């Protein structure tokens, strides 16, 4: 049995070791903690962090829209299984491919501007990807689109776990559909909403690299450079490995904080730990 | 219609004034219904119609990119400019600009090798976490869960430096190791969750019968856990197939790149025409989509199993 444990423990140890090597990377180029104050006083860093913050604004949409879609799917109208598969499809597709189509969609002669022209808004035609703020907006829209399927499935699974007699009771009590959704369904789905919140935040902060790489390469300027992309840019475009690693650690700390806040939320609501 | 009627409100139709009616006419809308009931039915039907319409609209939004890819992959650059006509020229151009076959093979090899390694580690480790009690197992498991929270970008630089020292940059092995390190924590977590669901008595009984832990694992636990194995396989396949960052850094030689990385590099060059990129997108997306369509339910299960309890 000890042999088994040893055989199992070592690969895990390795996996853990890999995850921890970020500290080695930092000390390998030891300058001292002053690197942090240098980095923190860099205006570009704050600009990048601001981008991350702005991306957070997309999260209510990335959760709210799927919630509505899941509610529709949960009516089990004919063909809902087909729709479910279709909505989930982007999950299988690489951010690289999604990003390339998105570039075409937002381009000056792309579908978005054609649609705007078609509804008489031809005057507001722009290439969203050309402006710093608008490019981030375009990125956020693409992000929301990509997350639709995943979050919809999470909520749909959650709704399937609900007790139908409870909903029926609410109906008998004379609650409208909307009331039932907000007063009965939604509170019961809290755990699922939290889960999708965490997944969405993690994706927004650490899964958009490919999308940014393909859509904007961080530009224009630093308009769409988020922290994760900044890590890559510092290290592999500018050759500042130490700085890159440092930003990586800041990102790590942010993720830990998100995780802890989440854990605290779960605990305070359940009244007990896991 | 029948499904729409019975599912959202189970038991409603039978509870209605069915008592006075002859058996058989049960849930059908009969001509002799009171007008109020008919109005209700009509309203529900229009509601269902609305939902169907909205869902179709969303489906169009979700499917549009795929149509766009297919439509424009079969165009030359000038046909793309004026959005008319079709041709297959871009496909041959794609094959000359990108070693498509080679990169598809690379993707497949790297995916397979990584998944096999991930499975080897995660099934054994998951079993150990779920069924064996040993010193500090709780802490080690906590470490695995903590590893789930580590973003790739935080470790990518030290990883790059370390593998560089080992001479593993631009080798399959280097990329595979990184994928395995990234995929193992979640896979282990998932397997452990699954093995916890298998009865302790069963394992105990097998061990008592003299199978020993190794053979109990191989002959009993492993065959029982194939749904979880399928989930891990599908999740990791899609993840690795679609990944860009790791491949971009650790496989810089076009001959070794995966198809996704090759495509992104092509697109970053900004010299390749859009139809060619769309053809490439199509080729790179198809395998992942096929896997998704076949193993959809395992993917869904993995997503929700990730919630733990």
Task: Write a concise keyword list for the protein shown above.
heterodimer; A: 274 residues; mainly alpha; 75% helix; B: mainly alpha; MetI-like fold; 2 domains
Model description:
With about 270 residues, chain A is an all-alpha fold. Chain A has 15 helices and no strands. Chain A has a single domain (about 30-270), classed as Orthogonal Bundle (MetI-like fold), CATH 1.10.3720. Chain A is about 75% helix and about 0% strand. In chain A, helix 5 (about 60-75) runs parallel beside helix 9, helix 12 (about 190-205) runs antiparallel to helix 15 (about 240-270) and helix 14 runs antiparallel to helix 15. The longest helix of chain A has 30 residues, at about 240-270. Chain A is globular, with a radius of gyration of 23 Å. Chain B has about 300 residues and is mostly helical. Chain B contains 16 helices and no strands. The longest helix of chain B is centred in the N-terminal third of the chain and has 39 residues, at about 35-75. Chain B starts with a helix and ends with a helix. Classes of the chains: A mainly alpha (about 270), B mainly alpha (about 300). The interface between A and B is large, with 89 and 91 residues.
Number of helical regions of chain B:
16
Gap between N and C termini of chain A: 28 Å
CATH architecture of chain A: Orthogonal Bundle
Number of structurally distinct domains of chain A: 1
Order of helices and strands of chain B: HHHHHHHHHHHHHHHH
- CATH top level assignment of chain A: Mainly Alpha
Name of the level-1 CATH class of the largest domain in chain B: Mainly Alpha
Secondary structure elements and their pairing?
The complex is a heterodimer of chains A (274) and B (309).
Chain A: H1 2-20, H2 22-28, H3 34-40, H4 43-56, H5 59-73, H6 80-88, H7 95-106, H8 111-118, H9 132-160, H10 164-172, H11 177-188, H12 190-206, H13 209-215, H14 227-237, H15 241-270
Helix pairs in contact in A: 2-15, 5-9, 6-9, 7-13, 9-12, 10-11, 12-15, 14-15
Chain B: H1 2-6, H2 12-15, H3 35-73, H4 77-82, H5 89-97, H6 100-131, H7 137-148, H8 152-165, H9 172-196, H10 200-208, H11 212-224, H12 226-242, H13 245-250, H14 259-268, H15 274-294, H16 296-305
